[in-house]
Amino acid sequence: MAGIQSRSVVISVGGSLIVPEKINTVFLSSFRDLILKYASKKPPTKFILISGGGKTARNYQEAASSIHKVPSDDLDWIGIHATRLNGHLLKTVFEDIAYKRVLKNPNEKVSFGKSKVIVAAGWKPGCSTDYDAVLFAKTHKIDTIINLTNVDYIYDKNPKQFRDAKPLKQISWKYYRQMVGDKWSPGLNAPFDPIAAKEAEKLGLTVYVINGKNLNSLENILESKQFIGTILR
Q: I want to staple 165 with a disulfide (CB 3.0 to 4.6 A). Which of 82, 93, 153, 159 is the partner?
């Protein structure tokens, strides 16, 4: 397989991995160890880590919606603030090698300097952190995104509803976009945000979608080895 060609990678870290029910310190500890392993190599791999909102965002969104009809933008802002809370947690976990603040605007280009990790979070309503990840990749001229989610593959249909759903190991942006459509809604649970997919296709990015619970897959991608997951390109 082609694997990672550049020494800078964007990783979108799903909120469901950071806080599935409570903060997953086991995952965060193992994730830190793996990132440190590659950040300390010569030359180092540098990472932009973008945190999702996950269940924290959905819990707050559902609570607000159960009390009163909430405008879509407000639901998005709840999700954005959840990503920023998770982002600050990630920055703290990587405090010794991380850039001094959590970035919010993906159009802002900063230098890594002596840092090996830049942590980022949600930006504005109308999209998810997947789209932010695509824009960060564009701003920093990075051609690869690794999307850590809670499923092993992208499937041809929802595996929770259809027992005959088939895993897709490599698919085109055109096919994927036909599957998920073009619309975003707050709390949408898709392997990769439709708005992000449209921009990623336009930019010619490669996106790996893998189960973040299996960090061996992440390491195998970084080592250009076989892995469990889906390649979008």
A: 159
**For residue 176, what are its two tokens?**
């994927």
Tokens of 94: 């990587």
Cα 163 from chain centre:
27
Q: CB of 148 within 8 A of CB of 12?
A: yes
Helical segments of 2-71, H only: 15-18, 25-39, 54-67
Spell out the residues 6+ positions from residue 93 whose beta carbon is closer than 8 angstroms to its own. Answer: 28, 31, 32
Give the C-alpha separation, 91 to 117, whole Å.
Answer: 9
Q: Where are the domains positioned within the chain?
A: 8-232
Residue 39 burial (C-beta neighbours within 10 Å; 0-12, 13-18, 19+): middle
Cβ atoms of residues 118 and 98 within 8 Å: yes
Instruction: List the chain pLDDT tens, one digit each, 233 residues.
Output: 445 556 899 999 999 999 998 999 999 999 999 999 999 999 899 999 999 998 899 999 999 999 999 999 999 999 999 999 999 999 999 999 999 999 999 999 999 999 999 999 999 998 889 999 999 999 999 999 999 998 899 998 888 888 899 999 999 999 999 888 887 776 566 788 888 999 999 999 999 999 999 999 999 999 999 999 999 99
pTM of this prediction exceeds 0.85: yes
Q: Is 140 exposed, middle or buried (0-12, 13-18, 19+ CB in 10 A)?
A: middle
Topology (CATH level 3) of domain 8-232: Carbamate kinase (3.40.1160)
| Token pair in block for residue 45 | 């791999």
